[in-house]
Amino acid sequence: MIVTVTANPSTDRTVELPGRLERGEVHRAVRVVDQPGGKGINVSRVIRAAGLPTLAVLPSRADDPFIDRLRGVALPHQAVPVDGSVRTNITIAEPDGTTTKINDTGTVVSTTTAAELLAAIVARAESADWLALCGSLPPGLPDGWYAELLTATSELRCRVAVDTSGAPLAAVVDAAPDLLKPNAEELAELTGADPTAMEREAADGDPGGAVRASRALSDRTGGSVLTTLGGAGALLTTPAGVWFASAPRVAVRSTVGAGDASLAGLLIASLRGADEEGLLRSAVAHGSAAAALPGTTPPTPDLVDETGIAVTRLS
Question: Where are the residues of the annotated region Disordered (predicted)?
Answer without folding.
Answer: 190-216
